[in-house]
Specification:
mainly beta, Porin, 3 helices, 9 strands, 53% strand, elongated
Length: 209
């Protein structure tokens, strides 16, 4: 599988370092005149993630009889995500999330099979920090469904990688994330690491209203 990004370990280390001590942000932003009301807010986020294969309960490697080698291998593109969340309380939010990723099986440098994965899921978010308009960190639980589409590139004698041109599989993910709002306003940055589908790490922007 030829989709390794050297930034993954760096981003992972930064996320864990920042997430371990929210007091760093409390000290940097100690303006007590700021309103710290964060519940009953709607937020929209969009980001780009990386997956090991397609990750999750089901992946092309699970279904395929093709053994990866120097002559035949999978290449996966970045995983694109967006979500719409409503934060009911300071410590609880619910979101509708969507992710999309594509990939291909290459044989002797030529694409033989194209795959896409559209994931739609519901996310429950449990916020861990004290009230702070500059910083959030949370645990997310995501459950949903992935729609796979498989297209063979003619002419070739390989069977479809997924064994079916259209396939539905369940997905599940547990993630840890942080959101940073440098000015305490509506725009911020979001970083996550996850176990499961559809990504293992992602970063993006977030807007809360």
């Amino acid at each position: 599988m030829k989709n390794r990004n050297p930034l993954i370990l760096l981003l992972l280390a930064a996320i864990l370092l920042l997430g371990c001590n929210e007091n760093v942000f409390a000290r940097l932003y100690s303006d007590t005149n700021k309103v710290t009301q964060v519940q009953n807010k709607l937020s929209i986020s969009a980001g780009v993630g990386v997956s090991y294969g397609f990750t999750g309960i089901s992946s092309p490697n699970t279904f395929s009889s093709v053994t990866e080698s120097s002559d035949q291998y999978y290449i996966y593109n970045r995983e694109y995500n967006c979500s719409l969340e409503y934060r009911f309380t300071h410590q609880f939010g619910l979101a509708l999330a969507m992710g999309y990723q594509s990939g291909a099986l290459y044989v002797v440098g030529n694409p033989f099979d194209y795959m896409t994965n559209l994931n739609i899921a519901v996310r429950t978010l449990f916020y861990l920090n004290k009230k702070n308009i500059y910083f959030d960190h949370y645990i997310g639980i995501r459950a949903g469904c992935s729609y796979w589409h498989d297209t063979k590139v003619p002419p070739n004698n390989y069977p479809l990688v997924l064994g079916n041109p259209n396939l539905y599989t369940p997905s599940f993910q547990v993630s840890y994330g942080i959101s940073l709002y440098p000015s305490g306003g509506i725009l911020g940055f979001n970083f996550e690491v996850g176990i499961g589908a559809p990504y293992i790490i992602q970063g993006g922007i977030i807007c809360r209203m």
